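The material for today's practical consists of a large collection of protein records. Read left to right, the C-alpha cells trace the chain's path through space. An example says more than a description, so a record of this kind follows:
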Amino acid sequence: MRTARRLNFARFTAAAFLLAWPASSRAAGDSRGQAGVTLVFATGGGGGNPPVRHLSPVISGEVKLTPRLDALLDWGVLYTSYPGPSGGENSHFGPNNPLFALRAALAGGRGLTLRGSIGIAAPLAFRAGDLSDRVTADLGYSMAARARGFMDPWAWALNTVSIVGRISAGIKLTPHLSLEGHATPAALLPISEPIATTRGAFQVGAAVSYAIGPFTPGFAAQLSASSRPLAAADFTALSVEPFLKIESRRTFARIGLTLNAGAPGSTDSAPFGFSVGGGAVF
C-alpha cells in the first residue's frame, strides 16, 4: 500500500513538472494574452513529526479585453501525503478556490506602470468526509499556504468565497534595474459554517530585479496579515524569495524559493516552498 502511494506521488510530481517547465512570470511586449503553469513543492516534518510531501500546481491565464483592461484567471490543485499511524500513507487531492479578476491600467509612461484589479475567488475547496479526511485536507491546504509564505490566502481557505482587490506598481530605474510592489486587501466570507466569521486579509510585497539579456534575477519580500491567526497566535507572516526569470519573445519561465523568514508555525510546517513555472504569450 505504501509503495503504491509513493508511486502515485512520483507520477503526480513528474506530470506536474512536465506541465510546468516547458510552457509564472510576465513577458513583455504587445500581446492578446498569456497562459502558464506554476508548480510549488514543499516538505515538512521533523521534531518527531512524520514527513509531509506537498505539490500544488496553479494554472494562470490572462486575456486582453481592451488596450487598458485584462481578464485574469488563477486556478490550481494540490496533492499532499504523509505516513499514517497504521503504517499506510494518508493523502489528499483537491482544488483550490479559482480567482476570476479584472485588471485595469491606471497610469503609465516614463518607465512607470500602475494597475488596479478586483476579483472573486469562487468556493471550490471544501471540508468533506469523515474526521480523518478532514484532518488530511486541513493539512494539505495549510501546507499550500505555508509554502507561499501565507500569500494569497483566499486560494487555499476552506469553505470560503472571497473578494480580492489589488493595486500594483512598477518602475524601471535603469534599462536593467526594476522595482515592483503591490498592496492587496481581501475579505474571506465563510460559507456552510454558521459559527465562522468573516476574515480580513491584507498583504504587501516588493521586488527588485536586474535584467541581463534573457535572464532576470531578483529578490522579493512579502508580508501577509490576517484578522484571525494564521497559525498559533500569530497574525502576520514575513517571507522572502530569491528568483530567476527567463524570457524570450513568446515564452517565459521562472524559478523561485520562498523562505518563511517570519512565518508562524511548528516544526511540522513548511519552512520553504520551491516553485518552477513557465508559459507562453499569444
Summary: Confidence is low (pLDDT under 50) at residues 16-29. The longest strand covers residues 49-66.
